[in-house]
């Protein structure tokens, strides 16, 4: 009996060992599946011939990617940057754009955004896979002309440097990209926006100052603590002696709303929606506090707030405008600070999502309103705020870091900015596994329910056009980033890579 029992235990141990080996192998495959595919599977769409990659070639474009169009704020900062003298490369403005002879390739992974949600739903590995696919696109030569195209084109250029114009992608994927480049032997610079943003936040701070600094970012960036870690490292490295409080505000749905994602905003909605995922009275992760509705001071006109029940005593509220999302998040941040112990006045906010600088004027307007807000004759937030709070756009320091790299490595081009190209991911409608909603986008459950390691073309990367950009986004680009808008327009006007609807003016892309 004892021998039989020992044999039974032995077999169980062997079986358990085999299962552990199998599970560890599967985990290992999931984490490096796309990496190995890119490097070794010459039959795959994602394969890159790294041995023949033209690294350190100054004639190549600069690659920029983001989860959506928000990264265009980073590109806008880069292409409008004038911090150096173009003749002698010294640190002095000369009235000429520093990157005037550089061209760029921009990718918006719109089909898979918002990136900030993946960590919060336990899909960090899937997010990392998306990020490596973004890298693969920039390194490769393939794209599709339009979503229904069965055959990809192969005349896209590779890139000589990469800017991760996405805070969440920087926080979760920059080390993966650097490890991939090291493993592949590719000598390419990768620049992320987080360290650049932190450096900018401390430019006007004295070493002994007591203050609070806040980060407003996506859920994923907040969960990563990427900014908190970078801020603490900066404080320690640069020997700051004052008391510095750090706060974070996760902007649930704000980036998605800016990009017109239907989970968060709908111009046609007139009543509360079942598929809404943003802040509400009933969302425990992003709860609107009914007791301080007057502090939010939402715009209730034209269905910018969707209401169930009476306005004075609603049973549900859903945000349905970008401005109301911003009002909610700024108030939520100030409430955090107000309720904390011994908080120092808020002096600096890092706009830690590339979508947010599009609306820095709205953030600033709301902060000034809250600084002057009184209830029962007393200021609600003033003692927790500096009168003039700096809004930091990490893109400015990102531009400087890119310039320094090109200068130090003699990689400045002699081309033209007008040769820049712009691509966006759309659902691959020819992939029978994808699940789409009525608007032709990935369903929420499918987008965040996919498994990493199942290497396939979920999306197709196609040129920007007015069928894959929301009309409000087009108007926003035209108003807030006119040079980027013109480059996008020029790309489509002169390029046969797209079935773009052409017009004779800039009224429509």
Report what the structure shows:
- There is one protein chain.
- By secondary structure, the protein is α/β, with parallel strands linked by helices.
- The protein has 2 domains: 32-195 and 396-494, Rossmann fold (3-Layer(aba) Sandwich); 197-394, 3-Layer(aba) Sandwich (Rossmann fold).
- It has 16 helices and 14 strands.
- Strands 4-3-1-2-13-14 form a 6-stranded mixed beta sheet, sandwiched between helices. Strands 6-5-9-12 form a 4-stranded parallel beta sheet, sandwiched between helices.
- Strand 1, helix 2 and strand 2 form a beta-alpha-beta unit.
- It is globular and about 70 Å long.
- The termini are far apart.
- The relative contact order is 0.15.
Structural features:
single chain; 509 residues; alpha/beta; Rossmann fold; 2 domains; 6-stranded mixed beta sheet; disordered N terminus; disordered C terminus
Summed up:
By secondary structure, the protein is of the alpha/beta class. It contains 16 helices and 14 strands. The strands form 4 sheets. A 6-stranded mixed beta sheet has the order 4-3-1-2-13-14, with helices on both faces.
